[in-house]
Design a protein that fits this description.
This protein is mainly β. The chain contains two helices and nine strands. The chain has one domain.
Length: 148
C-alpha cells in the first residue's frame, strides 16, 4: 500500500499506480485552506480517475499578489470541467463535474520529494475535444494498473 507524508505525496509500498497520460476524471471533493499571513488560498481538488481504483489530488492557488495568474489558472480549470459558475465561493458545486487531465509522474529526489517519495500530479487539463476521444466514464477498474 501507499502511505502519504503529504496529501499529494506518497511513499511507494504496493500503491496502485495511475499511468502517466490522458485520463477522464471526476471531482469528488474540494477542500479550501486559507493562509492568513500570505492571504493565499489553496483549493485542493480530489479527482477520481475513470477505470482505476485510486484518485489523485490537484491544487490550485489563489493569490491576491498574482491575481492575473490565478485568474488564468482557474479559467483553464473551469473550461476543462465545463464549470459555468466562476464564483470561487461556489466550489461545492464543482463536485461531480467531469473533465480530462494529463497525469504526470515525478520521482524524488527533488526540491519537494525525498529519495523514496513519488508523486502523481495533474500536469495539464485536456481540451473538450480530446476528452470526447477518451473512453466513457467507468466506476469499475478497467485500466491496466500496476502495484508498485
Amino acid at each position: 500500500m501507499g502511505y502519504w507524508s503529504k496529501p499529494n505525496v506518497f511513499k511507494v509500498h504496493g500503491f496502485l499506480e495511475i499511468p502517466m497520460g490522458d485520463h477522464r476524471v471526476k471531482i469528488t471533493g474540494v477542500n479550501v485552506e486559507r493562509f492568513t499571513k500570505t492571504k493565499k488560498k489553496c483549493y485542493e481538488i480530489s479527482l477520481k480517475v475513470s477505470g482505476y481504483p485510486g484518485k489523485i489530488w490537484h491544487h490550485i492557488w489563489w493569490s491576491p499578489n498574482e491575481e492575473e495568474r490565478s485568474n488564468l489558472d482557474f479559467l483553464a480549470f473551469f473550461k476543462a470541467f465545463q464549470i459555468e459558475d466562476h464564483n470561487l465561493r461556489s466550489y461545492k458545486k464543482w463536485i461531480g463535474k467531469e473533465g480530462g487531465v494529463f497525469v504526470w509522474h515525478e520521482h524524488g529526489p527533488s526540491k519537494r520529494l525525498k529519495q523514496d517519495e513519488y508523486e502523481m500530479t495533474v500536469r495539464s487539463y485536456l481540451p473538450i475535444e480530446k476528452l470526447e476521444q477518451l473512453p466513457p466514464w467507468s466506476d469499475e477498474p478497467t485500466g491496466d494498473y500496476l502495484t508498485i
